[in-house]
Design brief:
Blueprint (H helix, E strand, L loop, with lengths): L14 H19 L5 H16 L9 H10 L9 H19 L5 H16 L33 H27 L1
Length: 183
């Protein structure tokens, strides 16, 4: 069985190919409803309908908004944007260029490319901190962000840890003696 577009979809296809399709559809319906139609006539009507269906061409997509957005941002430079957001932006820009070059691109593809490019532009994030001229050493923290305290000679975190260790040791001794006397 052949699945055909609905009449409400006429605006998606060129007038010429839609007319060819509707003529073939009417002929197929007439042939199918004709009790005296031969198998050869039925096969020809089905073949004509299939060819007309395959020949349907979508109307050209409106690419003007995508083109305008692409032209505005095609020469943007990474500058101070983060690598991750810049990569996403470049991918969306390349997709937009591909869709703009595609003569057979459907309107839905054009709309999606425009939406993705707008989202990538909106999500561009600036790098934080000041740019350095020296290369950064690779981090062994596997992506976790750590901050270093200023080198002031202050060793308070070490003293705090030592104090906690003494307190926990003292607590263990007291609890141990308490259990010994309860028995």
């Amino acid at each position: 069985m052949i699945q055909c577009p609905q009449k409400s979809q006429t605006e998606h296809y060129t007038d010429k190919t839609w007319k060819t399709f509707t003529d073939a559809l009417k002929n197929a319906e007439t042939t199918l409803n004709d009790d005296s139609a031969t198998q050869e006539e039925i096969n020809k009507a089905a073949s004509d309908l299939s060819a007309a269906l395959s020949g349907l061409k979508e109307k050209g997509a409106d690419k003007s908004a995508l083109q305008k957005l692409y032209d505005k941002h095609k020469d943007d430079k990474q500058g101070s944007y983060t690598d991750a957001t810049w990569k996403t932006f470049r991918k969306a820009l390349e997709t937009a260029a591909s869709v703009l070059e595609d003569d057979k691109a459907a309107q839905s593809e054009v709309d999606k490319a425009k939406e993705n490019l707008e989202k990538a532009i909106k999500n561009l994030k600036k790098k934080t901190g000041t740019p350095s001229t020296t290369k950064k050493k690779p981090s062994s923290t596997s992506g976790t962000k750590t901050t270093k305290s200023a080198k002031t000679g202050d060793e308070s975190p070490l003293a705090l840890l030592a104090g906690l260790l003494v307190l926990s040791g003292g607590t263990a001794v007291i609890l141990g003696k308490k259990r010994k006397y309860q028995k």
